Amino acid sequence: MQPAAEQHGPVWQRVQLARHPKRPQTLDYITQLIPDFQEIHGDRSFGDDAAIVCGMGHMDGHPLVVCGHQKGRDTKQKMIRNWGMPKPEGYRKAMRVMNLAAKFGRPVVTFLDTPGAYPGIDAEERGQGQAIAWNLREMSRLGVPVIVIVIGEGGSGGALALGIGNRVYMLENSIYSVITPEGCASIIYRDAGKAELAATALKVTAQDLLQLSLIDGVIPEPPGGAHENPQQAAEMVRTTIRMALAEMQHMTPQQLIDARYDKFRRMGSYFEQVKV
Question: pTM score > 0.85 for this model?
Answer without folding.
Answer: yes
